[in-house]
Each structure stands twice: as structure tokens, then as C-alpha cells.
Structure of DNA-binding protein:
Amino acid sequence: MSQTYVKEPRQEAFEYWEGLKNKKLKLQRCESCGKYIYYPREFCPYDQGNLIYEEVSGKGKILSYTIVEKATHPYFISKTPYVLAIIQLAEGPTMLSQVVDAMPEEVTFDMQVEVTFEHHIYKDVNLPVFRPV
Ligand SMILES: [Zn+2]
């Protein structure tokens, strides 16, 4: 049996992971310039402004993707082939994530997607994944 080491999230990422626990996608938004950012950071990368968390729509589109044919971790063995995509969220930031509920050959550039949540058995966390709208 493989051992798993789960780190506590950094302070600035805590609310992101708490949101996922409750199946909500929450991103940081700058109080100064109003931009949403991802991944979690201590300060806004555009103007060093203070960041607060807000739940976002979870809607976006596929900017780019690849089809993964070989699992590089036991967790993915039953999932291959699967689509790994860069999703541009409606609020602006991009996320690297998996596309689910679609055959790899059905996925296209600019496909509209929405977030859903998948429980990761090895780390006991919910991860955001995306499915076609
Ligand atoms: Zn800012």
C-alpha cells in the first residue's frame, strides 16, 4: 500500500481548499484592481493589492488541451485516456484541469465547460474538474 503525505494548505490557499470541500470554486479577487487570480497568492500579482475570496461561476471554455494516454500515477490508471485542458474561466484566470463526462475525441477548442467536483481518494480532497455544458 502506498503512503500518502498530505500537506496542510498554505495560509493563502486555505479558503480555496475549504471551498472545494463544500463543492464551491472560490478564487481570490483583488480589492484594489478587481481582477480575479488563480493560483492562490499572498498579494495581487498586478498591483500588490489585498486579496479576498469570492465564489466564481465555474463556467469557462477550453483554451488548449491534450489527451493523456498513459497513467503516470496509480490514481489515473482507470481514467486513461483522459483530457487535460487549460480552462479559461469566465472571470478571467486560467486553470489546468481534467475534462470529464466527454470522450476525448468529443473535446474541442473553445468548448464551453462548467466546473464539477471529483473526490480524490488518495488525498481525501475534492478537486475541480470540468465537463461540457
Ligand atoms: Zn490587483
Remarks:
- The helical segments are 14-21.
- Residues 30, 32-33, 35, 44, 46-47, 49 surround zinc ion (CB under 6 Å).
- Residues 14-21 form the longest helix (8 residues).
- The mean pLDDT is 92.
